[in-house]
Write a structure and sequence with these properties.
This is DM2 domain-containing protein. The chain is built from eleven helices and six strands. By secondary structure, the protein is mainly α. Strand 3 and strand 4 form a beta hairpin.
């Protein structure tokens, strides 16, 4: 058997994005593991990923959560889907023509890859947009505003620091008092956690509209009430003054646990 070459200094996990997406798209997201995806990539491309273990693990996680996000969004119209498929096909064709590192892949796998990837939605830049966190989630991750990937990373920092993973099944998370308030459950899986976090992440305009809907309509006071001093309306629950803490995004320990 041919020796697996070491990854070069020009290694880029995006070179394997198409195949990672294809594997995740065809797998059961409740049972797939990062280790299985990495092993498949290593065998298909005949490459040693060990020198870039953490980087590849984080990349696979980001593609997983993006896939979950896309599946939760409303299905686009047929016309928009066809346009997006056409644009995606053109982009993939350009990338294929300019790729510096070319590796041989079985024709059947290449056909499967092309078929599955072209059906993916166009990248959504809003995926990395900063969101407003609920007060309960802020207590866990330590900040009022973060992007979804940052929230997931800080969740794992908290889970690891408090030893909340099931030692017999690293995919299961035991909920302490703070997590019980967030998830309303005594335990969750790492895949279930992402769906439950959605309830605690809000866009700025969503909060503005919600706040506007709660504001009472102004009324013209009658002569008997003209001299009365209006009572102040206090609404600070949706915008607590919480100081953002800078967490070091070192995921090496928790990523290695996930591969089991």
């Amino acid at each position: 058997m041919a020796e697996i070459p070491n990854a070069s200094e020009t290694y880029n996990p995006a070179d394997y994005q198409g195949m990672v997406d294809a594997i995740l798209g065809a797998a059961d997201l409740n049972t797939i593991s990062i280790k299985r995806v990495k092993n498949a990539i290593s065998e298909l491309f005949n490459v040693d990923l060990d020198p870039h273990k953490e980087e590849m693990t984080e990349f696979i996680l980001s593609r997983y959560y993006k896939l979950v996000e896309e599946r939760e969004q409303p299905r686009p119209s047929q016309e928009n889907t066809e346009k997006e498929d056409h644009l995606m096909a053109l982009r993939l064709q350009r990338e294929e023509g300019s790729r510096n590192v070319r590796r041989r892949v079985a024709p059947s796998l290449r056909l499967t890859l092309t078929t599955k990837v072209t059906k993916r939605k166009a990248p959504n830049n809003a995926f990395n947009a900063e969101l407003v966190l609920s007060p309960l989630l802020q207590e866990v991750v330590g900040g009022p505003r973060m992007s979804r990937p940052q929230v997931v990373k800080q969740m794992w920092v908290y889970i690891r620091a408090n030893k909340l993973q099931n030692p017999n099944d690293k995919r299961q998370i035991f909920c302490d008092e703070k997590l019980k308030l967030v998830f309303k459950k005594s335990s969750v899986t790492m895949f279930e956690m992402n769906k439950l976090l959605t309830k605690h992440l809000f866009k700025e305009d969503e909060l503005c509209e919600s706040h506007k809907d709660r504001e009472p309509e102004s009324e013209v006071p009658d002569s008997n009430q003209a001299a009365e001093t209006p009572k102040p309306v206090s609404d600070v629950s949706s915008h607590p003054d919480v100081k953002t803490e800078n967490h070091k995004e070192d995921l090496s320990s928790e990523m290695s646990d996930l591969e089991g």
